[in-house]
Amino acid sequence: MSELRDLYQEVILDHGKRPRNHGPLSDANCSAEGHNPLCGDHLQVFVKTEDGKVVDARFEGSGCAISVASASMMTQAIVGKPIEEAHHIAKQFHSMVAGESDESGDSSELGKLVVFGGVREFPMRVKCATLPWHTLRAALDRAREPVTTE
Fold first, then answer.
1. CATH code of the domain in which 28 resides
2. pLDDT score at 100
3. Are the beta carbons of 19 and 68 closer than 8 angstroms?
4. Has this prediction a pTM greater than 0.70?
């Protein structure tokens, strides 16, 4: 368990300090805004879809290391995936982080995202980790209202 916790911390710190896919996406055809008023995380997710697939994804904004790392890894995980699969991964991620699924269950679809399983030990941080994913789902659904964790 100690090794997983160390890996969790290392990955979160790496993506939190050096987020991937951070910045605008000028040709995005889906976007949504998300906000966590409890801790001040605020981000916007941009997605470009073509032929039912996510061809590019980026995010802008600011937040805690967990929120930024989650958004960074999310964008990496969904590019190249069918939209339905991106929704499925978002649902699985939320279930894992919120403790709604068995931690020992099949996590092969989540890949490296399993490091966020440790967030469930810190209930106040679950919203930080899931905000980018809720915002992604809103973008893909072309929701007009900003996403909030409250």
1. 3.90.1010.10
2. 82
3. yes
4. yes
